[in-house]
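Weekly modeling sync, notes
Attendees: AB, CL, MP (scribe)

Item 1: holo prediction request
CL wants a bound-state model with 2-(butylsulfanyl)adenosine before deciding which constructs to order. AB pointed out that an apo prediction alone won't tell us much about the pocket. Agreed to run with the ligand included and paste results into these notes for async review.

Input as submitted:
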Amino acid sequence: MSAKKDSAKDLEIQKRMEQLADEINKHNQAYYVDNNPTISDELYDSLFQELVRLEQQYPQFKTLFSPTERVGAAARTEAVKVKHKIPLLSIHTETDYTAQGAYDFDGRVRRELELTPQDPPVEYDCELKFDGLAVNIRYEKGILVQATTRGDGYEGEDVTANVRTIKTLPLKVENFPDIFEVRGEVILHKSEFKRINEEQKAEGQKLFANPRNAAAGCLRQLDPSVTARRNLSFYAYGYGEVSETVANKHSELLDYLKSKGFPVADTRVLAYGPEELQNFHVRVEKIRDDLPFDIDGVVYKVNSFALQRSLGFVSREPRWACAHKYPPQEVQTVVQDITIQVGRTGKLTPVARLKPVFVGGTTISNASLHNEEFLQNMGVKIGDTVVVRRAGDVIPEIVRVIKELRPDNARDFVMPEFCPVCGSHAYKEEGEKDRKCTGGLFCQAQCVQSILHFVSRKAMGIDGIGEKLAEQLVEKGWVKNISDIYRLTKEQFVSLERMGEKSADNLLASIEKSKRT
Ligand code: IVH
């Protein structure tokens, strides 16, 4: 009798938990996807707290689509590999940045389909080429059950717990085929990238080079609660294994996914023939900087699935799609100065201090000149106007000097014979490219760099020691040798500018913890 009563109560609790999950998911969708909140924050929090409490009490009833997963499941110790049911292939990249790129692609498609000039133009779906990471997200009976990275195309990494934290992605889809794999790109919006890097800087952690690297780092994080705080985004652009056909054209598939609550980018058009492809390429280039995320080109896809099938694949790439990129962004600026940076091993690197310019989504004010040989080959003087580029949108580089714009007072830069930081002899070995400071750890610059290397994630993983702090530790003479890090005291830390008791405690705890590494 009482067992029966228990099971009736269990059933009721289970039902309540499902109901809460559904309800909260609905509000999430309204808030994050439709930008149209449907309840007050207080009410939302109370529903959420009720679910959290029930899940703590009845973990056996927790649903796979529970919104509590959005804040991150338990951390893992290592990545798990998963074989893709259907490989995630890459697409051919049109290397010709000009209009010709679109005409070449259309020409290949028409030839392959044996179309004559009298046949009507081919219908294409034009999309953005998101600069992030491809993922395959598997839904079974409408519930998100697995997410994997592309990996080598055949085998990827399980990132399910991390992908569940993406707030714009549905954890449960109503009236969805039994099996449906949605494919798309995980990216970080530029604003979020900026915020994360500011946070990294404040915590003395390494900065991410660009949103793509940051997205990769967040997606492959072993601790989903960290990912949850990083606000990744997802945009759907395709499918993998499916148990049912839901569309006959690619554009219809994306419309369908959008109607099911998946984020699909709005910048997307149908184009007929190469001229319209090219128009899209040009139009997107104009709005590129205004988009909330980075793209590295556009993608054209033959819209009809029947035509896609008859076109097929060649060397692991579909013949029906192509990426049309943009040339690397180049701008002009002035070299205001050239200074020397001393690295961990004592290497002297000349760095051009540039008049800040905006290129490829960020402001750049420095560019490495690598070494004396590079400096000579480039023939750059202080005062010169130069062309800078962010190649592959990563490290800024000087492409060339515009000699015609050289002012009369332009000055040569001569590599110093002595280290500008410690005054030791800077020596270049026969046959070597690099000039090195011979000061060792006596050189404050080398000492600072050694500390940063020592505390980095890849080494001892001591959190909270960034460049500014390392410089202070060396300037004060507290760290002359790496081992001195373990002699630092709370009093010393607290006496530093802008260092509170709590930060000092955290630092000491982190130093203490590293002893176990
Ligand atoms: S379609 C079989 N569409 O670009 C074709 N890919 O080299 C599957 N990408 O790894 C890809 N935006 O990560 C497609 N709108 C888009 C895309 C896109 C970005 C990435 C994707 C893929 C790579 C293709």
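Recorded for review: The chain has a mean pLDDT of 91.
Action items: CL to compare against the apo run; MP to circulate these notes.
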